[in-house]
């Protein structure tokens, strides 16, 4: 089993290192120093249909075992556009307002956008939230009900982990999952992107 040292690496380096290594090796173990990295690696494995096992050695040391085959614990498959009635598009929100100009108007417009999105017949496969957009998925957000409705309809709601940490709201995440920049770029490169 190939061993990879990603201690001290920030998002998305552990994911990139692991993905590259698994192209040539059926099993790898990657050492990381934070829980966010383990979550990002686990999500990557789920999306790729690989197996994953995480061992916590201490508060700052984790071993993440990844395998394209073998006896590791299998993570449940994540819903994608083929599993639910969704369209071939994703929605990306990077702030708490829609458009430029008056902030109060922009916030009202964004609330209307998310409400309308949840009512569409053809839903996106993913909603990606990064930078100030992560405030939409945390406790106290006025669009949580609509984001939860989207999630229950099979839309994957993903918030940037580095952004949640930057704004110190990681513990307040109320809907969806944490993701990394590699996954955000990957999804944006593979789908039609809609931005409010």
Describe the fold and architecture.
The protein is an alpha/beta fold and 196 residues long. It folds into two domains: 2-67, Translation Initiation Factor IF3; 89-194, Hypothetical Protein Ychn, Chain: A (3-Layer(aba) Sandwich). Helix content is 33%, strand content 23%. The chain is built from six helices and nine strands; from the N terminus they run E-H-E-H-E-E-E-H-E-H-E-H-E-H-E. It has helices spanning 13-22, 35-48, 103-118, 144-152, 161-166, 181-190; strands at 2-5, 27-32, 51-58, 61-67, 89-93, 126-129, 156-160, 177-179, 192-194. The strands form two sheets. It has a five-stranded parallel β-sheet. Helix 1 runs parallel beside helix 2 (35-48) and helix 3 (103-118) runs parallel beside helix 4 (144-152). The protein starts with a strand and ends with a strand.
CATH superfamily annotation of the largest domain? DsrEFH-like
- How helix-rich are the residues, as a percent range? 25-40%
Query: What percent of residues are in strands?
Result: 15-25%
- Give the end-to-end Cα distance, rounded to a whole number of Å: 45 Å
Strands in their spatial order, largest beta sheet: 8-7-6-5-9
Radius of gyration: 18 Å
CATH class of the largest domain: Alpha Beta
Q: Tell me the CATH topology of the largest domain.
A: Hypothetical Protein Ychn, Chain: A
Question: Architecture of the largest domain, according to CATH?
Answer: 3-Layer(aba) Sandwich
In terms of structural class, how would the helical and strand content be classed?
A: alpha/beta
């Amino acid at each position: 089993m190939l061993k990879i040292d990603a201690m001290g690496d920030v998002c998305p380096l552990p994911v990139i290192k692991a993905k590259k290594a698994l192209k040539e090796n059926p099993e790898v173990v990657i050492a990381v120093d934070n829980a966010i990295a383990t979550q990002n690696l686990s999500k990557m494995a789920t999306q790729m249909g690989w197996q994953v096992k995480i061992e916590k050695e201490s508060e700052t040391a984790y071993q993440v075992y990844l395998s394209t085959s073998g006896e590791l614990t299998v993570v449940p498959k994540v819903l994608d556009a083929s599993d639910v009635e969704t369209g071939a598009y994703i929605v990306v929100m990077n702030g708490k307002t829609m458009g430029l100009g008056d902030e109060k108007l922009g916030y009202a417009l964004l609330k209307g956008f998310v409400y309308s999105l949840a009512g569409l017949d053809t839903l996106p496969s993913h909603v990606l939230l990064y930078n100030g957009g992560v405030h939409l998925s945390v406790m106290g957000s006025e669009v949580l009900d609509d984001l939860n409705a989207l999630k229950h309809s099979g839309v994957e709601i993903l918030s940037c982990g580095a952004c949640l940490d930057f704004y110190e709201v990681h513990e307040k995440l109320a809907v969806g999952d944490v993701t990394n920049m590699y996954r955000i770029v990957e999804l944006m490169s593979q789908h039609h992107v809609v931005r409010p």
